[in-house]
Amino acid sequence: MTERSRPLLNAGVSFTDAEYQAFRLFLQQSCGIDLGVGKEYLVATRVRRILAQEHISSLTGLLALLRSPAQRALRQEVVDAMTTNETLWFRDAYPFEYLKQHILPAWGGQNKAARGFNVWSAACSSGQEPYSINIIIDEYNRQCLARNRIDVRISATDISSEILATAKQGIYDRLSIARGLSQERLQTYFKPTPDAHWQVKPSLQSAIHFKPLNLQSDHFGYELFDLICCRNVLIYFNAELKKRILHKIHAVLAPGALLFLGASESVSGAEELFDVVNCRPGIAYRKR
To answer: Is the pTM of this model over 0.90?
Structure first.
């Protein structure tokens, strides 16, 4: 008896359970993401263009090609397709409000401003998070005394080289701009482009450094961060990998520094490394 292929509505792609499981394994080994069950349609819609581009008719054929050492660019393209997600400005609101109301005033008031404020935006996607962080810091600097102004450096990373290129360019269409960005901030920090898009001004971009990083396998370096945002990405990892990543994050947090996770995420498996900080309504995690 041949294995049943799953019908995938209008996705134009069908594959067997065994093919889906093999693709899940490839993705987990490549970037740590475990698709879980029931994500067949997501796979079909996101790899359909790549199958057509490579003139391949099945997931088995695609996986065979991906195993070739010469197909590094194609492997990255598949990972990009499966990990690129929509995001928005000032997502969940409370991390940015807590940064504005508590973290920055405390930092400036403790005479730490001179040494700079070091931020890591992990899994930064198309750039809305690091730009939002820098907007908050710039607004703080505009209203505080000169001696308390904070010099910030933001490292923004993602596994997807394609989405990082978009983030670094800092150009957004009207739909992307409308998702969480006020008109006042749009006028202050963006400039219109000839094709009716909006581009981040150089003054906002200069403090942000974009680079590729795989949370699963890459070394996080030795730089210490005063704030880390690693939001809405740990939910895609299994418990063991999530624990390893949290330990690596803990190692690059400065003493007493804060970690923000996504609203549905926690430090489960690494609770002994962090204290919970109530941000009302959300929470953050302080390095012990």
So the answer is: no
